[in-house]
Amino acid sequence: MGYPRLGGEGGKGGDVWVVAKKKMTLKQLKDKYPQKRFVAGGGTNSRISALKGSKGKDCEIPVPVGISVTDENGKIIGELNKEEDRILVAEGGLGGKLLTNFLPLKGQKRVIHLDLKLIADVGLVGFPNAGKSSLLSQISHAKPEIADYAFTTIKPELGKIMYDDFKQISVADLPGLIEGAHMNKGMGHKFLKHIERTKQLLFVVDISGFQLSSETQYRTAFETILLLTKELELYNEKLQMKPALLAVNKMDLPNAEDKFHELMSQLQNPKDFLRLFQKNMIPERTMEFQNIIPVSAITGEGIEALKNCIRTSLDEHASREDEAYSKKQLLNLQVSNTVSYSVQSLKHAVTSSRKDIT
């Protein structure tokens, strides 16, 4: 409340913030706050001894790093990608003042959704049984479950590639895609949302092709790449803009070399082969792979080359980002100097005109 007689202003209500904390999990948040209701403190009334009321205490909701905050309509409010990032989700109401007839205004009240997305340098993209889990265990220290049935991975598996100079790169083995994932079939959106938070994509395909079950159609390695690209495009076409590598796995199988040469021919001249496929299989934009590496997660063939390609690609991407940031900073500095010079020139002109008048 305000203080009408002396024109005192009441304190503003506290705000509600979502704050990223290092060792926080969504389960801890749910256990600690089972009601899932968060209320900030009210501002203090204006009084003779303190005409300006104090602001109410803010409320902080601790969440893990990697949270995406949306409102009840699904609109993104913001994302928390590093420790201590914060987002204002509900603002406290104004304290009573002359404009409000000294009555306080209500603060914001809203329903929010917290969605945790994985953050990794590299995300493995492939259909089930492409050998992603085996590949992750070869290139990193991760120990994922590995079996000869399609859906081995049903939750994201994180591993770290360790280099001789102690450089570390995080790799996420994500649940296998299936055709129709963009419509939330199979693991669907649970898979695709994690890809959004990776810096680079590593496509993993089985050189012998893929067939989910006896009821589904067999797909060649080239068809597999087209379908994976199409699924990403239909979910979010921005995913196709990410840097991408291609690991052609299971090169230890019979006739793998011949199939690999055929695949390379198809990837180098995709338009010559696209007419053979149904329109709904063909993406608007085919993926451009920075490197194509034949590997075998069983024998270890090509594993070191793959690790080197991953690092080189990420380093180049980081270098381009640094260069873009430097250019932006330089442009801002030039604009700032231009404005400053213009203001000084204007002052000089005004001073000169005053002298002329005198």
From TrEMBL:
<comment type="similarity">
    <text>Belongs to the TRAFAC class OBG-HflX-like GTPase superfamily. OBG GTPase family.</text>
</comment>
<dbReference type="Pfam" id="PF01926">
    <property type="entry name" value="MMR_HSR1"/>
</dbReference>
<dbReference type="InterPro" id="IPR027417">
    <property type="entry name" value="P-loop_NTPase"/>
</dbReference>
<protein>
    <recommendedName>
        <fullName>GTP-binding protein 10</fullName>
    </recommendedName>
</protein>
<dbReference type="InterPro" id="IPR006169">
    <property type="entry name" value="GTP1_OBG_dom"/>
</dbReference>
<dbReference type="InterPro" id="IPR014100">
    <property type="entry name" value="GTP-bd_Obg/CgtA"/>
</dbReference>
<feature type="domain" description="Obg">
    <location>
        <begin position="1"/>
        <end position="119"/>
    </location>
</feature>
<feature type="domain" description="OBG-type G">
    <location>
        <begin position="120"/>
        <end position="315"/>
    </location>
</feature>
<dbReference type="GO" id="GO:0005730">
    <property type="term" value="C:nucleolus"/>
</dbReference>
<dbReference type="InterPro" id="IPR006073">
    <property type="entry name" value="GTP-bd"/>
</dbReference>
<dbReference type="GO" id="GO:0000287">
    <property type="term" value="F:magnesium ion binding"/>
</dbReference>
<keyword id="KW-0342">GTP-binding</keyword>
<dbReference type="InterPro" id="IPR031167">
    <property type="entry name" value="G_OBG"/>
</dbReference>
<dbReference type="InterPro" id="IPR045086">
    <property type="entry name" value="OBG_GTPase"/>
</dbReference>
<dbReference type="GO" id="GO:0005525">
    <property type="term" value="F:GTP binding"/>
</dbReference>
<dbReference type="GO" id="GO:0005739">
    <property type="term" value="C:mitochondrion"/>
</dbReference>
<keyword id="KW-0547">Nucleotide-binding</keyword>
<keyword id="KW-0690">Ribosome biogenesis</keyword>
<dbReference type="GO" id="GO:0042254">
    <property type="term" value="P:ribosome biogenesis"/>
</dbReference>
<dbReference type="InterPro" id="IPR036726">
    <property type="entry name" value="GTP1_OBG_dom_sf"/>
</dbReference>
<dbReference type="GO" id="GO:0003924">
    <property type="term" value="F:GTPase activity"/>
</dbReference>
<keyword id="KW-0539">Nucleus</keyword>
<dbReference type="InterPro" id="IPR005225">
    <property type="entry name" value="Small_GTP-bd"/>
</dbReference>
<dbReference type="Pfam" id="PF01018">
    <property type="entry name" value="GTP1_OBG"/>
</dbReference>
